[in-house]
Amino acid sequence: MKANPFRQALATYRTIIVATMSFSIVINVLMFVSPLYMLQVYDRVLHSRNEMTLMMLTLIALTMLALCNLLEWIRSRVLMRAGMRFDEMIATGVFSRVITSTLRHPQGRSEFALMDIDRLREFLTGYGLVALCDLPWMPIFLAVCFFFHPLIGFIATGGAVIVFTLAIANEFMTKKELFRATIAGQGAIHFSNSTLMNVEVVRALGMEDSLCGRWNALHRKVIESQALASDRSAALLSISRFVRMGLQTIILGAGAYLALEAAISPGSIIAASIMMGRALQPVDQVVGQWKQFVSARQAYGRLSKIFLEVPEEQRKLSLPTPSGTLSVEQLAVAAPGTKAPLVHSVTFRVNPGEAVAIVGPSGAGKSSLARALVGIWSPAAGTVRLDGSELQHWETDALGQHFGYLPQNVELFSGTIAENISRFQEAAKPEAIIEAAKLARVHQLIQNLPDGYDTQIGVGGRQLSGGQRQRVGLARAVYGNPSVIVLDEPNANLDDEGEEALNQVVLALKTMGKSVLFVSHKMSLIAMSGKTLVLAQGRMQGYGATRDILQPKSAVTAIHSAD
Ligand SMILES: Nc1ncnc2c1ncn2[C@@H]1O[C@H](COP(=O)(O)OP(=O)(O)OP(=O)(O)O)[C@@H](O)[C@H]1O
């Protein structure tokens, strides 16, 4: 099995974290410039009154500070590029896993893993990671405070402990609410997306108010949880800010007292105050970045889960292009995430050049069977074999190229007609697209559209009529010379001319030696098949030559009359 690309990407990022830490070492060493400068100015220059020394010290300090800022700039550029590389390494993997995971658990909302990539990348490239890299420097800065005087050291350490405690309290007090807000936010987005998919029905049936009410309820949950988390976090943040400011006053006061007692030099007062500030800075940053930390950690958890649940597809032997023999044995089909089979014990075989009609009343399980035949749903029992090899033994993408599939509700994508027919393949040849359109008898129809093959069809192909969608979907099904073509009610939206064209397509596909299976209620199309499979309540009621099955009093006629 291939290594998990998420882990690989994180391993690569580890090198970047090491580089960031190396930058941080130099940057933090340069943090000593300001306190050292103060010590020199107050304790040496003011006594010696040497202006030349002051000028040289100032010049050196400015150079060092410029270097420090230059390094910070380079560090952020390195992080940004590494973040982009990290994104590149996992984005494709996440996208394909989201598809697999959604097929397995349609209600699982795995699409949000795509947003998690952004969250994690933002954390890895932003101040969050820098703050973490700076954190190990805190003890060193505190040690220097002790070096000035133990009292200074204790004040700074006490301050760091308080600020840290506040950060942890922040985590505990906001964790649950932030998690709730994320889940509620996903629910609201999911709901609004599905509403927007059906805007026409929403307007026509006056559902706006009720749907808006439902969305508002979900949205309010997000706002309430966020507001609660933000209230708690804001209170702690202002306490933390007060502690920081109070500490500065205390440290200056303590320094002045120690200077009066001649325990430290006057320059040490300012230097100690700067040093304590540096020690507390990473803690402050961590507190400020807490929300981002939490969200990045949740994103990390969800991404790890999806990579764990959907492991890398094992490399499979590439099988030769199939002739198209589809054999189904004792097949049982259940919807993803459910156990009860919708289709039971189906056995039949389709040879190249044959057409099989799948018939039966509504809810008989015809579409469920079609889904299993093209490998969308895995068999709950039994097998589906293409040229003798079970569908699971084929590479998913390779298998898709050997199948043509037209689902009942067509499912076109936002893009041009040409892109839809070519299944969005980047290297699609125009000749192949036109060949598929001609084979599907839709070339002329496309030519009559304002932009021909370049016509944008909108989300779900909404800018086409129902019949046009179905015929473009048929062209997509036959694109790329597939061996097996499965059509689920391909004539549901067709007029007489469209139906005649469809009958011609089935005839042509048979002549070309393709295996054709279609679900239909239309006798004229069923008559194009050599064999018919009759389903009722998920069970095979008959399978045989269409002319026998279409005889009066046969199973199919009985089923239709019962319908
Ligand atoms: N994704 C799903 N999850 C759970 N049950 C499902 C799912 N899809 C379909 N079913 C159920 O499976 C049964 C068969 O549905 P299917 O769509 O396969 O029937 P059909 O024969 O194609 O019907 P029609 O002719 O109306 O399209 C139905 O009872 C339906 O409720």
TrEMBL record:
<dbReference type="GO" id="GO:0030256">
    <property type="term" value="C:type I protein secretion system complex"/>
</dbReference>
<dbReference type="InterPro" id="IPR010128">
    <property type="entry name" value="ATPase_T1SS_PrtD-like"/>
</dbReference>
<protein>
    <recommendedName>
        <fullName>Peptidase</fullName>
    </recommendedName>
</protein>
<feature type="transmembrane region" description="Helical">
    <location>
        <begin position="12"/>
        <end position="33"/>
    </location>
</feature>
<keyword id="KW-0812">Transmembrane</keyword>
<dbReference type="InterPro" id="IPR003439">
    <property type="entry name" value="ABC_transporter-like_ATP-bd"/>
</dbReference>
<dbReference type="InterPro" id="IPR039421">
    <property type="entry name" value="Type_1_exporter"/>
</dbReference>
<dbReference type="GO" id="GO:0140359">
    <property type="term" value="F:ABC-type transporter activity"/>
</dbReference>
<dbReference type="InterPro" id="IPR036640">
    <property type="entry name" value="ABC1_TM_sf"/>
</dbReference>
<keyword id="KW-1003">Cell membrane</keyword>
<dbReference type="GO" id="GO:0034040">
    <property type="term" value="F:ATPase-coupled lipid transmembrane transporter activity"/>
</dbReference>
<feature type="domain" description="ABC transmembrane type-1">
    <location>
        <begin position="18"/>
        <end position="295"/>
    </location>
</feature>
<dbReference type="GO" id="GO:0016887">
    <property type="term" value="F:ATP hydrolysis activity"/>
</dbReference>
<feature type="domain" description="ABC transporter">
    <location>
        <begin position="326"/>
        <end position="562"/>
    </location>
</feature>
<dbReference type="GO" id="GO:0005886">
    <property type="term" value="C:plasma membrane"/>
</dbReference>
<keyword id="KW-0472">Membrane</keyword>
<dbReference type="InterPro" id="IPR047957">
    <property type="entry name" value="ABC_AprD-like_6TM"/>
</dbReference>
<feature type="transmembrane region" description="Helical">
    <location>
        <begin position="53"/>
        <end position="74"/>
    </location>
</feature>
<keyword id="KW-1133">Transmembrane helix</keyword>
<dbReference type="Pfam" id="PF00664">
    <property type="entry name" value="ABC_membrane"/>
</dbReference>
<feature type="transmembrane region" description="Helical">
    <location>
        <begin position="124"/>
        <end position="144"/>
    </location>
</feature>
<feature type="transmembrane region" description="Helical">
    <location>
        <begin position="150"/>
        <end position="170"/>
    </location>
</feature>
<dbReference type="InterPro" id="IPR027417">
    <property type="entry name" value="P-loop_NTPase"/>
</dbReference>
<dbReference type="GO" id="GO:0030253">
    <property type="term" value="P:protein secretion by the type I secretion system"/>
</dbReference>
<dbReference type="InterPro" id="IPR017871">
    <property type="entry name" value="ABC_transporter-like_CS"/>
</dbReference>
<dbReference type="Pfam" id="PF00005">
    <property type="entry name" value="ABC_tran"/>
</dbReference>
<dbReference type="InterPro" id="IPR003593">
    <property type="entry name" value="AAA+_ATPase"/>
</dbReference>
<keyword id="KW-0547">Nucleotide-binding</keyword>
<keyword id="KW-0813">Transport</keyword>
<keyword id="KW-0067">ATP-binding</keyword>
<dbReference type="InterPro" id="IPR011527">
    <property type="entry name" value="ABC1_TM_dom"/>
</dbReference>
<dbReference type="GO" id="GO:0005524">
    <property type="term" value="F:ATP binding"/>
</dbReference>
<comment type="similarity">
    <text>Belongs to the ABC transporter superfamily.</text>
</comment>
